[in-house]
Amino acid sequence: MMSGQSKNISFDALVVGGGIAGGEAALNLATTGFKVLLVEKELSIGGKMIMLSKVFPTLDCAACITTPKVSEISRHPNITIYTSSEVGNINKIAENNFEATIIRKPRYVVIEDCTACQLCEQACPVSVPDQYQYNLVGRKAAFIPFSIASPKAAAIDIDNCILCGACEKVCPTNCIDFTQETEEIQISVKTVILATGFKLFDPLLMPRYGFGLFKNVITSMQMERELAPTRPFNTVLRPGDGKVPDKIAYVLCTGSRDASIGNPICSQICCMYSIKQSQLLMGALPMADVTIYYLNIRSFGKGFEEFYQQAKGMGVNFVKGKIGKIRETENGNGNLILRYEDINEGIVKEAEHDMVILSVGVLPNQDASGFFPKEELKLDPYKFIYQADSLISPARTSIDGVFVAGTASGPMDIPDSILSAGSASAEALSYLIQE
Ligand SMILES: Cc1cc2nc3c(=O)[nH]c(=O)nc-3n(C[C@H](O)[C@H](O)[C@H](O)COP(=O)(O)OP(=O)(O)OC[C@H]3O[C@@H](n4cnc5c(N)ncnc54)[C@H](O)[C@@H]3O)c2cc1C
Ligand code: SF4
Ligand code: SF4
Hints:
This protein is an alpha/beta fold. The chain has helices at 20-31, 62-75, 119-123, 166-170, 220-227, 270-284, 304-314, 414-432, and strands spanning 2-10, 13-16, 36-39, 54-55, 60-61, 79-82, 85-94, 97-104, 127-129, 138-140, 142-143, 155-156, 182-189, 191-194, 198-200, 217-219, 247-254, 289-294, 317-328, 336-342, 347-353, 355-360, 362-364, 402-404. 20% of the residues lie in helices and 28% in strands. Helix 6 (270-284) links the parallel strand 17 (247-254) and strand 18 (289-294). The two termini are 39 Å apart.
């Protein structure tokens, strides 16, 4: 339902996507005195980074880095944040003059009045899979997205709500409002930064790995959640039966470097995040065996090779092997048989593990290609945002005044996303002051 309400507000910059790249770019512009609108489609800013456990190669706690940054972004007087919001369209009228339509979806909770007391969660009778825990556990239809969400406020998942009113009855501040409607807001800005991030490869597209069929085959993002301080369980366990695993396998390049599934490029982060997780698992489960099946280990960044050698030193097994198929054992114990080609020996082998983690790759988020009805926002051959001058000015896109930050232009890790956000905000600044 659209309210028909239409406001017209001006900002200096529109930043689309509130992950680490968009947040950093917004902060850079805001601290220089420019007014920024940060539009995020999820209920919280922070992107994928806020969901991570620790970060390679330093093993710093991801939440401990992200939370102060997110707090700085959300409190900055020059940054306005719209969560649960998307871009309808962006039209370039002239240099330094863009008009955009922003669609703000109702949260059915007045953010400013919500104390995050969770009484609505407790009262709500509806349980559904929790997308912020990557479906490892459930959540209610009235829910706070996750404990370090920003804004930390409840939301009503209207698609699953049965409108029983239980949440409204218990809410001590009366901030649940089922009359909220979708709002369409017209804004004017002088420059645009696209920081819409990446998508994770969906392993259901590779049925031979058994994801969705065998409960103890999970994704790397699910393992991130199991290892994070804000984790869904109090330990690492197999979703199939709650058993603590002791023979864990990683399958690298799941959905990367594989032309047969339409993604021939390297995701750049999967080797390193898998090596990171293997070290965290060795710490959490000292008696467990961890094996990483890989094609090549790409430890190309600063400190990465040392981090790889450190994992070997800790006892992580590295097997140069291409996984053909994963099946469950027939005795019903939920273990998995990996059939693979041992690349060094050139023979096909089988190995049994009790949990398998698919190191899923980075895919382009193509949302931004639909933002500009009158201009052409070019994509590169892999459908990431095209960098018009990737060597000299990597943040420039095919539209003057529109810049790209972070993984919206290709796979990269957090430090590179932050560097890229720095480049995008510096380019946007020089575009802003050339008026
Ligand atoms: C399992 C795993 C482990 C990782 N571990 C590490 C690590 O240890 N160290 C490291 O350096 N990197 C790690 N990474 C990589 C890291 O997550 C990325 O480098 C980083 O998240 C990129 O940030 P970003 O802002 O570019 O994108 P994202 O985090 O994807 O953020 C993009 C944001 O834009 C929003 N958005 C998307 N489309 C729209 C739209 N149309 N309108 C409005 N908003 C939109 C999204 O909701 C999201 O909030 C890991 C990644 C994975 C998958
Ligand atoms: S919506 Fe109300 S009951 Fe739910 S967390 Fe917020 S203040 Fe508490
Ligand atoms: S009205 Fe909806 S969100 Fe509120 S308690 Fe009932 S089902 Fe849950």
